[in-house]
# Entry
Amino acid sequence: MKYYSTSNRKLEVGLREAVIQGLAPDGGLFMPEQIPVLPDSFFASLPQLSFQEIGYEVAYLFLKGDVPDAALHRMVNHTLQFDAPPVHVHDQIHSLELFHGPTLAFKDFGARFLSGLLGYFAQQQDREITILVATSGDTGSAVANGFYNVPGTRVVVLYPSGKVSEIQEKQFTTLGGNITALEIDGTFDDCQRLVKQAFGDTELKQKLFLTSANSINIARLLPQSFYYFRAFAQLKTPYKQVVFSVPSGNFGNLTAGLLAKQMGLPIHQMIAATNSNDIVPNYLESGIFSPRASQATISNAMDVGNPSNFVRMQQLYQDDYERLTVDVKGCRFSDDQTREAMQKVYRNHRYLMDPHGAIGYLGLQNYLSEESVGVFLETAHPAKFKEVVEESVNDTIELPDRLHEFMSREKRSIQMNAGFELLKDFLMEF
Ligand SMILES: *Cc1c(COP(=O)(O)O)cnc(C)c1O
# Structure
């Protein structure tokens, strides 16, 4: 399979290049040249397939020819070490819990698949791959945990000192092994600038095989389609119309759902649910895409003013606005509505949602009929947003064991100022 740049259909590369480059040289995002469709036999056997079997069948269509079977099985099994169950909340509403991975958010799926693939490429060329990543919190923890102990890879996480939450910091500073944390005396923007400078430095690029684990990497998107199939397999209501509501920021999750739909999964409706950063819902209503500075909300992982995967959504529909707006409906909710939803669902149904999942839940309200079953993506464990959730539901919530474990370990980081020379010296000796 070839992957083309969304900025130039003629710029095509193979899987390896698409994954190692992350972003196309012309600034575009990589897209598969065609969307393969799964055979009827796959859908007939779907309810009997394990999560790993589903993941393998889906990934195979994109990766065959580039990755041998045994390696593909390894990658998928490494990715899907935990389930994504649709949990019944009330009436015909289900929560697709995507937070059962090591860092308690759906980004674990993408990070783990990417690490498996880069680990494979490293092996192929007998050269260690160094992943440089700047983080304001969540990306660093998902990437560090995804690559932890993956042979042939090592990760350097740059993060702004004192500007990430303690839980997040513990998740990438306590692993050790092939994970190194650099605590930068500066802001997230400084960290990002340093990473960019490193990628632009000829000496460094000669010495190290550098790559990023950016969220727009196509290898992070593909595995996010696995759990839409898994949800169908587990719902056991094939006669009903299935509606997915996706709390969205950069729209990777939603795009992965559209991919699943185009691969043949009979999704009846996709809902693009946002907080007040409603650039895509506005587009779906008006046809005008107008990015703007992001606003801070309590669902902060979705505070995005210029959603990066929007261009992929358009490409999947060949820029056909009419067709896109049939398949995807948009809606947005305020912080007050989000808090109220968390509170009501907890009070009436004893189900705890995080602020992002709560927006997904709200998104279902206007789009369910007698015929349909609604599934909202619960993208993070509520304990990750302990303060706002506890305040909304007026109760205390427990940290899951794996968070406790992180919290009890000792932080190890290397402190550095925000100048490039220090970072370069460090990496040259690395
Ligand atoms: C990243 C993130 C989102 C947004 O997902 P996109 O794929 O960027 O739309 C939603 N919820 C949580 C908890 C996240 O970490």
